[in-house]
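Sequence in, structure out.
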Amino acid sequence: MTKTLDEIKRLRKKYHLTQQELAKRAGVSQSLIAKIEAGLLDPTYTRAEQIFGALENVEEQKELKAKDVMHQRVAFASLNDAVKEVIKILRQKGISQMPVMDSGKHVCGMISERAILDTMAEHPERLGKLRVSEVMEEIPPMVAMNTGFRTLSVLLKDNPAILVMERGEVRGIISKADLLGKME
């Protein structure tokens, strides 16, 4: 998207910045901001880049992060768990998927209602015998606690959930419903 100079004032007000605050963040004078906003001056390309860069930094700072959206209580399944037991847990907790841990306590996949239903449709007679390892899907994307809302929304377009990691441990999970719930 191409930015126009008249967006400077709109964005500045959106982020509740004074002309002086924006000028300080961009490394330009307040009078330059005032003249640009009044349409009295066309800044150099370099100055416009500085101003828009400062506005983008403010936007990133105000953007919701993974830590603000995630569920901290994550239920896990193990490779050898019976699928019937996982179904009970999904229903009790009102969730639609769970990360799968291997014996070394590392995430090795994801089990979801969709994966269970797909397997049941193909082999309904095996439901009572199925183990998580036979039904699980690939590991979902993993992000850091400070990953921004825009990145999360892009990842959730193609994935049912995202795991939020810190120091190699799962700290939370984000589903599409979680992200939609935070939109205003």
